[in-house]
Amino acid sequence: MTQNHFGPTRLDAALVPLIAQKWGTPVYLHDRAFIEQSCDQLLNMPNAFGLHVRYAMKANSDRTVLRVVTGKGLDLDCSSVDEAARAHSAGIPYDRMMLTTQEVPLGQEREELEGMIRNGLKYNVCSLTQYRLIADFAKQAGIDLSIRVHPGASGGGESQTRDTGSEYSCFGVHLNDIPTVVEMARDKGLRFTQVHVHIGSGGDPEKWRENIDRELGFVRSYFPDAGTVSFGGGLKVARMPGEKQADINELGTYAAARLKEFKEQTGRALRMEIEPGTFVVANSGYIITRVMDKKLTNEMNFLLVDGGMELLSRPLLYGSEHPISIVGQDGTLRSSEYDSYSVGTATPYGIVGRCCESGDSVRLDNEGTIVPVQVAEAEIGDYVVIGGTGAYSESMSPENYNSHRKAPAVMKMKDAELVLIRKRQVREQLVQNELDVDL
Ligand SMILES: *Cc1c(COP(=O)(O)O)cnc(C)c1O
Q1: What CATH number does the domain located at 3-29+282-430 have?
Q2: Strand 271-274 to 285-296 pairing
């Protein structure tokens, strides 16, 4: 426990006022070294017959993040045609992308998609409708497909909203429909060379292992042409003390053993693919906010900070917990939930943002009531730093609510240099698509 550091990356608290003074608050911060270490860890996952790692770019789709991650050798999983186009505009070729989407692109978007596929984008069929729309094109262009299977078994974490495998979610072609789609493909002479399942985010590693067994079962029954099997993303990270992170070595060792078994039984050596988002970036990110005001009610002591749900919606959406640190105006770390570090007595504060929304807080219970966070006594002008915000924060937030402008992002490079990677939105951008019509 050192006084000047906090968080899994041991980010120096002294940087906080430097960043805040230079670029203002609220501001997102990313630690490049951390992202690269996560990539290395994933690329070194034990495997039997080869490993391919795709980064699920919806976790954080910023171009600098994409360049860092692909620079390490990870490819991408895109969740929409626009996401693929966005990655391409960052200089990433289509042959490094797979598209796994709920969309059924039509018209011009459909043509665009066909162009992407011709340039090497892998299409992951996620519904019967998608199959019917793509089949003729794939056949004529001589392109093999991937298929996402809905396993009818759940896998998500603490929240039903992140479970993508249960009967109450609708991702992929349901197992019930697999015989039909396999037969249609066989009749057409199309091949599914990859089978994919993603059961959800942040769940129990046991679910991840169960999914491997189940998935290999239906690869064996239905997919004779599959050479690659994707076990999806969903590798859990520990944001808060006491949470348990997925053990990449242990999961890889398990997967490798099952794949070797599969080879002994069938003679088929399957390459393994994984597509984590959270694991790559979650703990590389922080949000730096500034205490603007303090208020007291009969029930709660409040710190009002200048960024909340419009920067990070996970507490409101999922009840997720993110570790809070208090950094003084002089850059000293005063308290950190990462390691129960606190100077002086910890005080329970309701930490709220600036949106006109009673649930705009970083800590909420299941009913959406604000839960106080135990932190060091903080004054107006001190910093509240929210940790574990590298994934699903800037890419998934109700930005511009209350007409707040999207916050800028800074990356700490490997030589500790701080670089602005995204500017703060300007006011004009809030209204740039609105038209002045005659009234
Ligand atoms: C969101 C998503 C992922 C990544 O999930 P994480 O929990 O961030 O690892 C992987 N695959 C698909 C298809 C997804 O939709």
Answers
A1: 2.40.37.10
A2: unpaired
Which runs of E-coded beta strand occur in 360-426? 373-376, 383-387, 409-412, 418-422
Q: Please give the pLDDT value at position 1.
A: 40
Q: Can 3-29+282-430 and 32-280 be said to share one CATH topology?
A: no
CA angle 23, 381, 29 (to 5 degrees): 35
Per the listing, tokens 């991840």 go with: 208
> Domain limits of the chain?
3-29+282-430, 32-280
Q: What is the pTM of this model?
A: 0.95
* Mutational test site, ligand 1, from 41, 54, 79, 211, max ligand atoms within 8 Å of CB: 79
The ligand 1 site (C-beta within 6 Å) comprises 56, 58-59, 77, 79, 100, 198, 201-202, 232-235, 275-279, 391
- Per-10-residue mean pLDDT, the chain, length 439: 59 93 98 95 97 98 98 98 98 98 92 97 96 95 96 63 72 93 96 94 84 95 97 93 91 97 98 97 97 96 97 95 95 88 86 96 94 96 97 95 97 93 97 97
For 359, the 3-state DSSP assignment is coil
Torsion over CA: 149, 152, 154, 156 (sign): positive
**CATH number, span 32-280:** 3.20.20.10
Contact by Cβ (8 Å): 59, 77:
no
CB 116 within 8 A of CB 138: no
